[in-house]
Amino acid sequence: MMASWLRGLLVLAAFAAIGVSPAAAQTPSPTGAKVYIINLKDGAEVTSPFLVQFGLSGMGIAPAGVEKPNTGHHHLLIDTRMTDEQMKAPIPADDTHKHFGGGQTEAMVTLAPGKHTLQLLLADWTHIPHAPPVMSEPITITVK
């Protein structure tokens, strides 16, 4: 079985081959869709590693690479924000942009001691944020 991230990359390569830009591929989000962190509140103190539970209303979850209307998969932004231009392209995969393309609804996160920001962002089957974006308010946590 092909990894979901690889399927997403192949989809993007197919877009490029036919001359379609990723921005043209943005998937609309339904009115009122919301994503939120269930178990942590702004100002929380945690010990690493810690659990982050992802909440979603008004949409469903589908793995990356699976195109299904009104669905997406979670990404956790850590200590970063995305520009308007970045919101029109596939979300990078690195230490500050965590992908949950398997359809996960929670994750154990390991961070160094100190203050950190967390924000959830839903993306479509190609890892591109929806239009308009379905993203949580950022929260600040302190890792002890």
Give a written overview of the molecule.
This protein has 144 residues and is mostly beta strands. The chain has one domain: Immunoglobulins (Immunoglobulin-like). Strands 2, 4, 5, 6, 8 and 9 form a six-stranded mixed beta sheet that branches. The protein has a three-stranded antiparallel beta sheet with strand order 1-3-7, with no helix packed on it. The longest helix has 14 residues.
Helix content: under 10%
For the secondary structure, the number of strands is: 9
Secondary-structure element pattern, one letter each: HEEEEEEEEE
Q: What is the approximate shape?
A: globular
Give the DSSP E fraction (strand runs of 2 or more residues). 25-35%
Output the CATH class name.
Mainly Beta
Termini gap: 40 Å
Please name the fourth-level CATH homologous superfamily.
Immunoglobulins
How many domains would you count in the coordinates? 1
| Largest sheet report | 6 strands, mixed
CATH topology group: Immunoglobulin-like
